[in-house]
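Lab notebook page, bench 4
Experiment: in silico fold of construct C2
Operator: M.H.
Input chain length: 383 residues
Purpose: comparison with the prior construct
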Amino acid sequence: MNTPCIAATGLTPFGRLEPADTLDLMSRAAGAALAEAGLERGDVDGLLTGYSTTHPHLMPATLFAEYFGLQPAYAHGVQVGGATGLAMVDLARRLIQAGAAQRILVVAGENRLSGQSRDQTIQTLAQVGEPVHEVPNGAAVPAYYALLASRYLAETGCSEADLAAFSVLMRRHAARYPGAHLTGAVTVADVLASKPIATPLKQLDCCPISDGAAAVVVARADRMPAGTRPARITGGGQAHTHQHVTMAPEPVHAGATQAAGRALSEAGRRLDDMELLGVYDSFTITLAELLEGLGVSDRGRAPADAAAGRFDLDGSLPLNPHGGLLSYGHAGVAGGMSHLVETVRQLTGRSPVPAPRGPGLALVHADGGVLSSHVSLVLEGAP
C-alpha cells in the first residue's frame, strides 16, 4: 500500500486562454487535482513546480506556494526541458519513498501562446542549441529536429508522407478529447501541403504553441482519503546523454532505451506487458525516434505501425489518447505532463475517451532538449 501513486490529476484546456497568466493557469490545474483527490491545501506537504518561459522567476515553487496558499515542508523547482514533468513525478515518488513528504503537488503551466511573441518563444527555446556556433547562426529547435528527420529518412528509407501518419493519428485522437487545441481532421496530403518550417518538417509535423496547465498529486496510497482511485508508480528511470545535438550518441535515441530499461527493470515488467503508451511528440520525428528507441517498433517501422492502426484507441497499443503535443497542444512543461495526466485517467477509469480494452499497465516517456534528457515511468492501475 505504500507504493507511491498518482492519486489525482488536473488539466486545463489547451489553446489561447488569455488573460490567464502562468500562476492563474497553474492554480486552475492544481485546484482541480486537489479537488479530485479530496484534499485541502493544508494537506499538501510537498510542492514541485516546472519552469515557465513567460514568467521566469528565480524561485518558482516558493512563488506558486504563496500565490496558491501553500506552506509545504518541501518545495523545489525543476528544469530539464520537455522531460521536466515526468522528472518532477519521478522526484516526488523518491521523496515519498525516502519519507521526506507524504502528499506532493506537482504542477506546471504557462501562457506560452498569449503571453509572448513568436520571436520570443523561438529565442527562448533556442537555448537548447550550442551557444557559440549554432544559436548565433539562427538555429532553433525545429531546425535541430529537422536534422534528425533528414537523417532518419535517409537511414530508414521512410518518406515525409510516412512521418505524416503521426500527425493524422494525433489529430484523430484530439478530435474526441475535450479541451484539445487542434481538433480539425487532417490527412497525409494536408500535412505534406502545410507550410515548410525546417525541411523536411512542415507546420503539421510540429506541435502548436499553447496556453495551459497540468497537475498531479503524488502520494502514499495509505495517506489518501477513502475512495481515491490511484495509479501506482511502480518503476522509473532517467538518462541524460547530451545537451547539444552535435554531441548526441549513436543511436540518437539511446537515452530513451536506457531510461525505459531502468523503469521496466524497477517495475519488474517487460515492454510487452504494456497496454498503453504516453510518449512525447513535439514533432512527428520525435515520435518515430522515441517509439523505436523505447523498443515499441523496429527501426524504421514506427510510422508504418501508426498508419496500420496499431496506436489507435482501439488498436493493440493505444498511444496518446488525448492527442499529444501535436494536437492537444504544447504549453511548456504542462505539455509533457498532459501525457501523464491522460495515462492516469485511462488507468483509473476517468478518461473522457476510455480505451475499449481498459488498460492496466502503461509506459510514459518524455524527452527534453533534442532527445537529450529522458524520463520513463511505469504506471499500474490499482488492484
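Observations: The chain is about 35% helix and 20% strand. The mean pLDDT is 95.
Next step: discuss at group meeting.
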